[in-house]
Amino acid sequence: AKNPPQAMHFCWDSIIDKKVYETWITFGYPVWEMMLTPYPSPRDASIQEYHRYLVIGLAPEGRVRVWLVNNGKPNTRLIEDKDIMVETVSGEKLAMCKKITNHSFSGGYNDYILNFIKDKKYPYGNW
Length: 127
Hints:
This protein is mainly beta. The chain has helices spanning 29-36, 111-117; strands at residues 7-14, 19-27, 39-40, 48-49, 54-59, 63-68, 76-78, 84-90.
């Protein structure tokens, strides 16, 4: 990445706990360094690649995890308070995200969502 992100600020809805969240992610120097440092492509070692993409996981209770995408290898989880700072708020603490959602949480869950969350604990998978 030629210009790695310094920060991200975004809104999101959790249909599981029926809340709107607002999250700030601040990326520290270790992330910039990883994104600015080329590495040999797993497909062809003569080609240099860069970490250009992030995966952001959002889970109920305002849980946020961030990974740096590694082409052809497992993604690198960015560690809070080491690589990144994450702040997530909801309710009265919302600023940018206040009254922004179009999702009504009053109707309950449809069958698709009920089947999806049945017998699962969150956060889902390996966090």
